[in-house]
Amino acid sequence: MGFARKEYEFLKELGLGPRNPGCFVHGGWRGSGPTVSSVNPVNNQTIAEVMEASIQDYEDGMQACNEAAKLWMQVPAPKRGEIVRQIGDALRAKLQHLGRLVSLEMGKILPEGIGEVQEIIDMCDYAVGLSRQLNGSIIPSERPNHVMMEMWNPLGIVGVITAFNFPCAVLGWNACIALVCGNCVVWKGAPTTPLITIAMTEIVAEVLEKNNLPGAIFTAFCGGAEIGQAIAKDTRIPLVSFTGSTKVGLMVQQTVSERFGKCLLELSGNNAIVIMDDADIPLAVRSVLFAAVGTAGQRCTTCRRLLLHDSIYDSVLEQLIGVYKQVKMGDPLEKGTLLGPLHTHASKEKFEKGMDIIKSQGGKILHGGSAIGSEGNFVQPAIVEISPNADVVKEELFGPVLYVMKFQTLNEAIEINNSVPQGLSSSIFTRKPEVIFKWLGPHGSDCGIVNVNIPTNGAEIGGAFGGEKATGGGREAGSDSWKQYMRRSTCTINYGSELPLAQGINFG
Amino acid sequence: MGFARKEYEFLKELGLGPRNPGCFVHGGWRGSGPTVSSVNPVNNQTIAEVMEASIQDYEDGMQACNEAAKLWMQVPAPKRGEIVRQIGDALRAKLQHLGRLVSLEMGKILPEGIGEVQEIIDMCDYAVGLSRQLNGSIIPSERPNHVMMEMWNPLGIVGVITAFNFPCAVLGWNACIALVCGNCVVWKGAPTTPLITIAMTEIVAEVLEKNNLPGAIFTAFCGGAEIGQAIAKDTRIPLVSFTGSTKVGLMVQQTVSERFGKCLLELSGNNAIVIMDDADIPLAVRSVLFAAVGTAGQRCTTCRRLLLHDSIYDSVLEQLIGVYKQVKMGDPLEKGTLLGPLHTHASKEKFEKGMDIIKSQGGKILHGGSAIGSEGNFVQPAIVEISPNADVVKEELFGPVLYVMKFQTLNEAIEINNSVPQGLSSSIFTRKPEVIFKWLGPHGSDCGIVNVNIPTNGAEIGGAFGGEKATGGGREAGSDSWKQYMRRSTCTINYGSELPLAQGINFG
Amino acid sequence: MGFARKEYEFLKELGLGPRNPGCFVHGGWRGSGPTVSSVNPVNNQTIAEVMEASIQDYEDGMQACNEAAKLWMQVPAPKRGEIVRQIGDALRAKLQHLGRLVSLEMGKILPEGIGEVQEIIDMCDYAVGLSRQLNGSIIPSERPNHVMMEMWNPLGIVGVITAFNFPCAVLGWNACIALVCGNCVVWKGAPTTPLITIAMTEIVAEVLEKNNLPGAIFTAFCGGAEIGQAIAKDTRIPLVSFTGSTKVGLMVQQTVSERFGKCLLELSGNNAIVIMDDADIPLAVRSVLFAAVGTAGQRCTTCRRLLLHDSIYDSVLEQLIGVYKQVKMGDPLEKGTLLGPLHTHASKEKFEKGMDIIKSQGGKILHGGSAIGSEGNFVQPAIVEISPNADVVKEELFGPVLYVMKFQTLNEAIEINNSVPQGLSSSIFTRKPEVIFKWLGPHGSDCGIVNVNIPTNGAEIGGAFGGEKATGGGREAGSDSWKQYMRRSTCTINYGSELPLAQGINFG
Amino acid sequence: MGFARKEYEFLKELGLGPRNPGCFVHGGWRGSGPTVSSVNPVNNQTIAEVMEASIQDYEDGMQACNEAAKLWMQVPAPKRGEIVRQIGDALRAKLQHLGRLVSLEMGKILPEGIGEVQEIIDMCDYAVGLSRQLNGSIIPSERPNHVMMEMWNPLGIVGVITAFNFPCAVLGWNACIALVCGNCVVWKGAPTTPLITIAMTEIVAEVLEKNNLPGAIFTAFCGGAEIGQAIAKDTRIPLVSFTGSTKVGLMVQQTVSERFGKCLLELSGNNAIVIMDDADIPLAVRSVLFAAVGTAGQRCTTCRRLLLHDSIYDSVLEQLIGVYKQVKMGDPLEKGTLLGPLHTHASKEKFEKGMDIIKSQGGKILHGGSAIGSEGNFVQPAIVEISPNADVVKEELFGPVLYVMKFQTLNEAIEINNSVPQGLSSSIFTRKPEVIFKWLGPHGSDCGIVNVNIPTNGAEIGGAFGGEKATGGGREAGSDSWKQYMRRSTCTINYGSELPLAQGINFG
């Protein structure tokens, strides 16, 4: 049996067929849960079918994973780094195909699909270096003949639950670090991007096999909320990294906390760009376009709020509407397309419903805002003039809607920026050092990502990625994010024969 | 009106009288909540009275604190360090009196009372140095004319809820770091140690006043659960540091998470000492005594489980019972006393009830275990032979009860050590490098504190203090614990005029 | 016998008399070398007399110091920090007197004298914190059952040779760090500031004595080149920290290298301030004044070259001459004085000779430049218009001479800034981010200190102080400067019973 | 024209022929200096000929390199990392051939030849990760509206002079780090291993070309002392990394210092293994064999001194002589060979002369010590009983000679270990924690490498490699060694409009 369309044939190069088992368990493929369809957002027709995980699949997978963890944590970190290096090389070999699949199944444009895979490759390279730098400390002890050390040991298993919008890069951020840190990975991909979950897993699996390592080091499940909950409740999983909405993230957090596990949360954003009167306007406009329309507004770092200084308000708005008009919408795999469809039909409906709410709360739609055609999930990106106090502005409408607001002073702009529950990303456009450093300082943006003269999206892996407040507080990728994937112990060794006490206490 | 006893007169040196307002709000003292008695655990008679906080006191305090936060976070960190240095010097000047008060009100022996205050002084000294080292990073950007920076900014306000057993040191761990990090501190001390809360606050308040700083930078409340809950729910408090039981800690965590605040939890411990057959036995026995009987077993790091290698079991037990017999019990302020009373009458009752449960679960009491006298809260420290699987062994009975168990192999000892829900502290006594590093490694102790040839208690401030699993995962004092008291932002500044994108993406 | 003048009586508070032994050797004072006079630069009359070190004094001192080093390096670092804390407190108690002495003997104005002592106090506070953070690393090993560690151990003895212009702060930078790092200190102060050397040493000595530590931990010599050479050649001194001219520094370096010791060099500066056309001119002018005239131009960070953008050249120059005219010259101890005398009569002669050379090389003296009066060492600060290519501009004339030059472009300004052999400090005044980051970047200033909108002088202790090229490359005070005062060892412990080799080599 | 022997044909795969230009200058190959022969140490016959660099070649190369430096330092560090990654991959593709060449031209056995190339590959992988972690710091300023930063910028050009014994790994340590740090590399390989120099350079050159980067980023010269001196004197080269003898290294240092350049020196070692009475003797004996006989005693980390505890002296010696007798000597390319020839005929003569000196100083040759055959440079590895005080023991005789000595106490063993001028590597064999930590501590080994239960040689790249005292003090490869390849600047930006001064000074 072949694929429905000839243009899907490239999926064979990624080990995919028209019908695919969706669980990688104990080094083998299976799937005894429901069969689901992977759907092309351009036309809402099936690309291929996937058998999802049953709870039995999950349990079998976790048992094998738990066994594998005992072995993997004893492999020296630089050797683990070598495995991750090989994964990076295997991804590099399939970069084009994987990028194409991301674009096909998720709906983002091809350069972004390839960029997403490139980001995992970058993460692999980074993690290889890191595998020799997971350093503990030797801390001077106040007691003679004592040595104090801070050691970092693997956690065992890291659960990774990812969302449709970055169907593999977020896995990459987590898995690359988790693996060099000595953890096995249990991955549940988004229910609507199962082919990517399978293709990515296949690549990792081959590397493990080539190195005679248990496949269960990397365990993957296609599945939905049931599997997600199983992960959240599973005491064998000390750390659950969850990417998704604030609402679900909070439930995950409470469930995991209940059993004294840890969460790494990457939840909703509600990101603003502030344009000051001294900004480089063409640079700013180009940035807003990329940040608001890129990935059809379905990035967690998508710019959702545009704060314009009074004196440039009209002019920027005019330019922005001008560039919005030129955005080429269409098949994300076609060259030149800047805007693909929303990921699902439900997203499209949500978008339309959102427009109604916006209007009912006083929002004035300056551009776009309607769904287009009936076949796929295309919508016209919207520019909306609205008060910063409108309720809808406090929420994350996951599509290409940009709220535009006016401010008079830097303080006011910062206040509006910080007035939403979320705290992921934020940007200012200005050329004044005093404005830049205020923005970066204690009374500036309260987000995890604080940019200047670049959009809210497009993070580099060397920094820590994540946000504050309702965004969940987790940090992924660079900086010292790796510490979250390890357990820290403060160790004191007495190698002498006396027992001096700290703080000079005398006992007995 | 004077104190009930002449020996309480020294309290005047600490600004205390027979009746004391228990809230330091907006730089002044008040207390419109219930009046409570501070009770001497030696005789359960009142030392002095304290007017606790009402919810109105709380609200007034928080409003002032919130205002003060705006100012304090702009004071340069090294200047904040200078304030903390002065607090350290002020404590140094009152070390003896404060230590005496700790001993009097909490019931620990005087050297430990003084040691506890000394620990805050050490923390102050440490924090002063830290105030010039709260370093962010400049990270190489992959984009030309871009600079990537990781900045650390103050959180604003840190809530600190402390427990009776370290009525001031835990405040010290948190407040010294929180203050140099640019945060105001809101402190709720334990309901049964209000005099210490007041005396400590008084010292801090004087330093703030001398420097013309708002007293609200340090806001303190004597009070109970109501105030605790108010702190947990208060969105003005981004971080709540809670020390106490796992049960209450979990409630705090869920409440704070609900509003997307952060917690730093220091919860129950259930700490084991493992003695290998090659251990230095006299050193080990002395350590067990200090760890199990010190502070009447009311440290979170108290040794509660003693794991003895089969071959030395009888001999160690015999020696241990021998030293237990020589422990001098009595008034903690008297020279030579090693064991004071339990902190409250309720603790004494719990201890007695615990003994019953132990027996009902097969525990064999080898030494001690009964309450003594009727006036104070004195109990005989107990040594109990019991199975590691007994339910009671999984819980923290907050008194001087030591469960003794036998093991054959290192692996077995580690398994028992890790078999409880808590993960605070642990120690092994051995002279073999291979045993030491196994103990410290991925398959070793799963605790936050992992010691060798020293007891489970008596941490130095240079390391990070805290534990895993049901102990809550927080880390206080040294290492990079300060990062928990700040918010991190990943900042990218584009100082060029182009807009290159990360991962080499081309958009438009 | 009393002091020549009543206003010197305060020196008694610092333990000084009219005749003072100048060596602190083995915990006692002596001085069997030549007797020299400490001279007041205001009038070139004797303040007091000092007996300098003979080579025998030196040898005796070093023997005791070498013994003391064995003990001191075993004192736990946090305990060493406590000693340094006490030194800081002792200095705090004598801040006014010591600052007064610095002003009196060196000739700098009183606020600078007090500021210099304050800097040592700051260093002490900083070093106390550091004493718990002299961290080594635990590095992941590629070999199973191996642990790799980077340890930092004391060097033993650090020799510190300081210059007259910062007669005690430079000792402070070095000694505070050296001491917490576990080293004994051997100090040779400048020959012309012996009273400060003695007073400082006295304070340290008292603290050591109070703590029952050998005085030889801090060994000090008043003396000249002979003692300096003895230090440079002494194999018992693994590190020599030298502050002074490039010429002498190079000799020290070659001598110390010959015996495989290490040097930490703080040599000549030749520091430029660049003022761009968009600068805040009043801020810039005020900064140039402080940087060029402060300490009578005798700081290593004194601004010696002023690079003005063509478009603001005339205007800035005019304003600068205006403020130069208002500078109050006189007794440095008098309130309101901004400019004291040069330190010695020889300096004054050098200054006058320098003026002749400047003129002979085409320099045009726009303001000042002549000596004043005959009693003290006063000179009028000079502003000189000169080509950046003149030979004299490449050298450090250690007095208040400011060379003014014109440039057209940022690149040209940077080229001139970098065109001198020295590389200590540099500043730019601008409000443009692109200029700031170019200045800080690979094609910017090549100095160790690179400032923006502040003068070339006035460093904070939290950063690393020092310069590149002929300035010698050493770094003092903050950041990781402490590493220079310790020896690093890369340690690998095999705690297993196998012998795997790195890089997977198979041998035998 | 072909190679003299068929077995050299594989060299073609590395771009080598019978006659090769030895300079890579401005992206092209040339060589207008003397023609020299690369000689096979097995038979002293020519492998191929090489045209070395003339001074004109050098000057042309440096001019191009200096130009390339301006470009390379502006390439973002992660992009530079990508180039180094590609170099690593190119080496991986030629691992077997390059390893074979190392074995052929240098004379070490094939597994060591391959291991040496693997080490460069490891370094590349490590450096890729590092390229996103060359972090500067943001340091809290004591002044409001000021930000203090520590920035790291490229030096420009790094000169690397390597020795015959690690003809390419040492280049790898330096070049990988230097390149990601933004520096061009100028390499002078050892005069007797020109083919390796050419082959390595060829691989780097191809990667540069493929990426359209100037070849001059990597400039290489085959040549001798004249080129070495030119590098040492060249003010365009801020850092010279030199590996070789202490004698030459000191000359390089003084020459480079004279022009205020910096040196990174890896000079002679004189490394001891201490075997305590509680050691795992079989492990120790196997380690000594690898450390003393491996690479025919021509590693800088070769064990040259064996310190045996009195009680095991005879037994260990007997076992050691036993294993020495079984060492298979022969062609290093043959499977099973453990000991190849010395590198040159001169080395062989030096070895023989060394034996005479040893005898004349009272050394007793217990095993080996004579040259073997006449064709190649083979010698029998020697075991010599000698006093630690003999002059010859203080020097590095660069061949397989092991001095055996007896000690009674740990202190005595440490004293002997530290009694030589060199301070590179050292090992102890023991199972006692107190011995281990004394050995690692302030009164332990004074070397840069301090091992326990592994040999003196065989370092991992994650740690810093290098030694103290006459070994020169440089550190290569891991830890923070990269800092030596960059220049540090302490930057303060005032973004406010006031001019507060450090230390609270008031000026004017």
From TrEMBL, chains A, B, C, D:
It comes from Aquilegia coerulea. It catalyses: an aldehyde + NAD(+) + H2O = a carboxylate + NADH + 2 H(+). Homotetramer. The active site is at E266. This is aldehyde dehydrogenase (NAD(+)). Keywords: NAD, Oxidoreductase. It comes from the Eukaryota. Belongs to the aldehyde dehydrogenase family. Its EC number is 1.2.1.3. InterPro entries: Ald_DH/histidinol_DH, Ald_DH_C, Ald_DH_CS_GLU, Ald_DH_N, Aldehyde_DH_dom, ALDH7A1-like. Gene3D superfamilies: Aldehyde Dehydrogenase, Chain A, domain 1, Aldehyde Dehydrogenase, Chain A, domain 2. Residues 33-489 form the Aldehyde dehydrogenase domain. GO terms for molecular function: aldehyde dehydrogenase (NAD+) activity. The lineage of its organism: Eukaryota, Viridiplantae, Streptophyta, Embryophyta, Tracheophyta.
